[in-house]
TrEMBL record:
One of its GO terms (cellular component) is cytosol. GO terms for molecular function: FMN binding; oxidoreductase activity. This is FMN reductase. The lineage of its organism: Bacteria, Pseudomonadati, Pseudomonadota, Alphaproteobacteria, Hyphomicrobiales. It comes from Nitratireductor arenosus. It comes from the Bacteria. Residues 4-157 form the NADPH-dependent FMN reductase-like domain. Pfam families: FMN_red. PANTHER family: CHROMATE REDUCTASE, NAD(P)H-DEPENDENT FMN REDUCTASE LOT6.
Length: 196
């Protein structure tokens, strides 16, 4: 079975390094035989997570759309920037809202259950955004997702990509290859996806 992987970045800033990292991961996953869906969180705007708002108006439609997308894929690849050594607010808010989804109409829906996640980060600094991945990993584990051990952090991100969007640095490229390979293998093993 071909693994279906959903790819998105934790930033929607124009020219965001995480967006370029997500694009590089999308290409690598496709090269390794995955069926890849690349989305932008810009297309799924959400209010700030607020349980009073949820009680009053219910789960936002975009959170439900994302939960359906998560469920329709075997794995996720998230490319995240680092904000103050942690998770960017856009990404945290998105993951929190999706975690509130329990059903789709009358049918149960558990978007993180048996979901395998690969993590990448990027920054112009020397750590490549890696510090933020510790917190991202903890959040996703609490949501009951399985996070693979290999991860890829792209430092010096302003000069890290060639004209075709490939990583220039061979070590970083091999890290990305390993993340994608491990994600595909593990996601294929654990697949319980719900086809839309």
């Amino acid at each position: 079975m071909t693994a279906r992987i959903l790819v998105f970045a934790g930033s929607i800033r124009t020219g965001a390094f995480s967006g370029r990292t997500a694009d590089a991961a999308m290409k690598e996953l496709a090269l390794q035989g995955a069926e890849v869906t690349r989305i932008s969180l810009e297309d799924y705007p959400l209010p700030i997570m607020d349980e009073d708002l949820e009680k009053e108006k219910g789960i936002p439609e975009n959170a439900l759309k994302l939960a359906r997308l998560f469920s329709a894929h075997d794995g996720l690849l998230i490319a995240s920037p680092e904000y103050n050594a942690s998770i960017p607010p856009l990404l945290k808010n998105t993951l929190d809202w999706v975690s509130r989804v329990r059903k789709d109409g009358a049918a149960p829906l558990q978007p993180y259950q048996n979901k395998v996640v690969g993590l990448c980060s990027s920054s112009n600094g020397q750590f490549g955004g890696a510090r933020g991945l510790y917190h991202l990993r903890a959040v996703l584990m609490n949501c009951q997702a399985e996070i693979i051990t290999p991860q890829c952090s792209v430092s010096g991100a302003a000069d890290a990509f060639d004209e075709e969007g490939r990583l220039n640095n061979e070590r970083q490229h091999k890290m990305l290859e390993k993340v994608c390979r491990t994600l595909i293998e593990r996601a294929s093993m654990l697949s319980t996806r719900v086809d839309m």
